[in-house]
Amino acid sequence: MKRTLNRTINIKDITPHNPNWEICAKVTNKSEPRIYVQNKETKKNFSINLMDESGQIKCTFFDKQFEQYYENIEIYKTYILSDCYVKKANTKFNNLEHPYELNASNKTNIIKCDDTATKTLKIDYNFIKIAEVLDKEENSIIDMIAIIKSMSEPHNLINQKTGKEYVKIDVELIDDSNQSIILHYWGNISANLEENTIVAFKRIRISEYEGIKRVNITNSTIIDSEINEEEKERLSKWIKDVEIVE
User: Fold this and answer.
1) Looking at the domain assignment, is residue 123 inside a domain?
2) Is 24 exposed, middle or buried (0-12, 13-18, 19+ CB in 10 A)?
3) Which residues lie below 8 Å from residue 215, measured CB to CB, with a gap of 6+?
4) Does the pTM exceed 0.85?
5) In terms of domains, do 61 and 148 share one?
6) What are the φ and ψ backbone dihedral angles of 13, each rounded to 5 degrees?
7) Which of 102, 154, 158, 225 could bridge 84 with an S-S bond, Cβ 3.0-4.6 Å?
8) How far is residue 90's CA from residue 122's CA, in Å, rounded to a whole number?
9) 8 Å CB contact between 207 and 201
10) CA angle (215, 216, 220) in 5-degree steps
């Protein structure tokens, strides 16, 4: 498909009233496949979150589009996307701020393109310290920057209701508030997490079990290791000072 620049719009401008559009956006989140039986037929879907300089939007792929795109769409890569069905966002399954979401159709076109268009994307963070997380209410959505101190081996768990297998990893995070917290990680992008690296998390959820606070990846979480140098330098200096003291 040839790109038509006069059709390119920002994600924030997508509405059902403007059907003739395309966006150039980065995939910031890709769900695990969802496979279920409906009316004796096996159904499949997965979803991605797309981001440009104006915001984020969710796009879901069903059945034929699942088969066409699931293996081909890569997280953190940039794509030109057009001709999707625009619908009101289902806030039960979508906690992005955009009032609409997308469903891929037989007419949908997706082309992988040069990352140059999205390399300069700046994510707006409102970081809080781990010590502050401990005082926040359960289910609060927060942003955090921290050092990955350790990671557990992957655990394979079975959902008792659906029979679906999940992979869970526990990630211990530390920061310069001299506190640590466990991040429960579910999903398919754990390869982007490494011990002793500084990582920013956008939109993670606080949970609590037996009085202990933890944080969890959500379907709108962005994991970013390309954060600004000031933040990296601050935490790098702190961890070096801690190591010297110890």
Assistant:
1) no
2) buried
3) 133, 142, 144, 173, 181, 182, 183, 184, 201, 204, 205, 206, 207
4) no
5) no
6) -95, 5
7) 102
8) 26
9) no
10) 125
Contact by Cβ (8 Å): 108, 83: yes
Per the structure, the complete domain to which residue 54 belongs is given by 11-112
| Cβ neighbours of 195 (radius 10 Å) | 11
Residue of 156, 237, 147 whose CA lies nearest to 183? 147
**Cβ–Cβ under 8 Å, residues 190 and 154:** yes
Q: Which of 5, 52, 53, 2 is nearest to 27 (CA)?
A: 52
What is the full per-residue pLDDT of the chain (246 aa) written as tens digits? 444 556 889 999 999 998 889 999 999 888 888 888 888 889 999 999 999 989 999 999 999 999 999 999 998 899 999 999 999 999 988 989 999 999 999 999 999 987 776 766 777 888 999 999 988 999 999 999 999 999 998 888 776 666 677 788 899 999 999 999 999 987 655 456 888 888 999 989 999 999 999 999 887 888 887 666 677 777 888 777 665 444
Judge contact between 57 and 84, C-beta under 8 A: no
Q: Which residue has the tokens 């699931």?
A: 70
- 40 shares its domain with 140: no
6 located within any domain: no
Q: Which amino acid is at 123?
A: I
Report yes or no on 31 lying in a domain.
Answer: yes
Residues 86 and 22 sit within 8 Å (Cβ to Cβ):
no
DSSP 51-108: EETTEEEEEEEEHHHHHHHTTT--TT-EEEEE--EEEE--TTT--SS-SEEEE--TT-
- Domain total of the chain: 2
